[in-house]
Amino acid sequence: MSVFANLPKPAVAPKKPVSDTRHGITRTDDYAWMRAENWQAMFKDPTLLDAGLRRHLEAENAYMEAAMADTKALQKQLFAEMKGRIKEDDSSIPMKDGPFAYGTAFVTGGEQPRYFRIPRDADHRDESQRHLLLDGDKEATGKDYFRLAGIDHTPDHAFGLWGYDDKGSEYFTLRIRDLSTGEDLADVIENTGGGGAWAPDGKSFFYTLQDENHRPSKVFHHVVGQPQSQDRLVYEEKDPGFFMGVGGSLLDDFIYLDIHDHETSEYRILSTKDLTAEPMLVAERVEGIEYSLTEGGDVFYILTNDGDAKDFKIVEAPVTAPGKENWKEVVAHVPGRLILNHMAFARHLVWLQRRNGLPEIMIRDRTTGQEHSIAFAEEAYALGLQGAAEYDTDVIRFSYSSMTTPTQLFDYNMATRERVLLKTQEVPSGHNPDDYVTRRVFAPSHDGVDVPVTLLYRKDTPLDGSAPCLLYGYGAYGISIAAGFNTNCLSLADRGFVYAIAHIRGGKDKGFQWYEDGKMEKKENTFKDFIAAADHLVKERFTSYDRIIAEGGSAGGMLMGAVANMAPEKFAGIIAAVPFVDVLNTMLDDTLPLTPPEWGEWGNPIESLEEYNWIAAYSPYDNVGQKPYPPILALSGLTDPRVTYWEPTKWIAKLREKAPEAGPYLLKTNMAAGHGGKSGRFQRLEEIAFEYAFAVKVAGKM
């Protein structure tokens, strides 16, 4: 008998057919009406949502609540477990910068971080030394949603630029705070990307403005004390397919304008010696060529895939003439060794690379050229490279964790090679790594390629096919899912689950080719890799098909929709968070925030029949049929600018229409949040507890 027995009747969505013809092909969409005509305005003010749409979303939420009513106690238990693993009054190890060290802290019961600073050499454990700069809980008071964009201090440490989003729509408001008094100046900068770059004198800063279609298309220069309307336009990106960001250098000598899509990049730089000058082009954009800059004194160090360096190399160029004709190789391209990012300091060049699926930090002495690495011995682990806030230093900071090892934070002296453990993540409710097993197995995919799968389970979990499994996947944009410590998934492992991460194509887990083999015309490799991972886990008796719950979000939600269509019988349940499932309609609508920048990832079905057909072949919404779908939980955010609320709403309606006897299909729309869900640290745990409760229920483990 189904675990979802005696449900009320679900919400019924009316059908209002809208036809669209492209390349001589006519498609009819019965649920196109779910896209609010005033979506741009609604993202900024959710009260403007059409009343009929609101009623439908609320009816879906009511049906979802009825279906999950018997999990209320379980949700509370899961939440308590997850919260119990978090040190509530935790604080960071402050990062030294000039006369101060800057850090963040939480208070017991607090949802938002507090930003503070201490004298440079003060004991960070002495709270009397802390000067509070920004109290996130105070700023969030009275708001249903609140997300901080951090605070960035001026070079003279007098002021801080901070930003917040109180709608979930990712339109950030910027304020300027006097760090000595804690008072904000009168300046209010609205509709920004969330951050900025200070000029060296601390009297002005640069920021990106989001346009009406939520694209960061303009960089402005704001002088403290003047109204936003008087800000000077520094650069406008005319191509809607490109994102733009702005940042500063550790040496405060340049402002960087980073212009890029998913496969092409271009930098323009502005010398801080003349803030009114036109930004200087470094190397003009060439389709498929990526590069990024970091300061190196009299040179720039440039990470690039130019010259067939598929897994990237590092070159240098004079700051006075950084054009491509002056690029000189420093770190050669090595096939299979993917360089992920780089940074430079007065005496050392540092980069993070991945080889054989594992991360490694490399350090080169800029004078001698001698190199050494920081690596670890576990089967699967994660490294984070934080670097330093100062240029003239020999000490950088990095983090290490694995699925069983809590996060450890180190300071590392690049000259002496001394490693100092600063902090180990505390798990207040207790954690014994020896109770768990981390493994890395390889699943053969449809074309013979081995797909890495990271596993976590308790040592006493029977590996006879009886264990339930939560199989997570993403597989897009070259993003790799790190095999790092995750206290939340311990709640599943402690209930007998095998927790698995499938490192499928579309990420860069096995190099840049791994990414290219999971995009555009090769996108279906992503889906087949995930199914292959499920097959392998069943074959090796880690689990069984009727015990696998698949999970993915955003582009990983597309993955969930695709595998549901391709192999519904191989999953006991599916969790699709903010799922990008209406791929063809979205890629055909160039007014949506992310459509033009996404064409390099999925294809442009407006211009190309071939690319139209690629997308049409797998787009989850377009391929829903009468199939034995398992229970599906879709999660959505009303003000989400990345995956708009109507995508999962349409998908659930169509699933219910085409396969009414399967499912059930549950839609949870957060009416006061966007792409990332709720913003507070414990509010977010409530959402994870809800998702895990669905998994436990479907697995029959309540």
UniProtKB/TrEMBL annotation:
Q: Which InterPro entries match?
A: AB_hydrolase_fold (IPR029058), Pept_S9_AS (IPR002471), Pept_S9A_N (IPR023302), Peptidase_S9_cat (IPR001375), Peptidase_S9A (IPR002470), Serine_Peptidase_S9A (IPR051543)
Q: Which keywords has UniProt assigned to this entry?
A: Hydrolase, Protease, Serine protease
Q: Which PROSITE patterns match?
A: PRO_ENDOPEP_SER (PS00708)
* Top-level taxon of origin: Bacteria
Q: Which residues form the Peptidase S9A N-terminal domain?
A: 10-424
Q: Which GO terms describe its molecular function?
A: serine-type endopeptidase activity
What are the BP-aspect GO terms?
proteolysis
Question: Where is region (Disordered) located?
Answer: 1-23
* Segments forming domain Peptidase S9 prolyl oligopeptidase catalytic: 485-701
The text of the family note is:
Belongs to the peptidase S9A family.
Q: What is this protein called?
A: Peptidase S9 prolyl oligopeptidase catalytic domain-containing protein
| Originating species | Ciceribacter selenitireducens ATCC BAA-1503
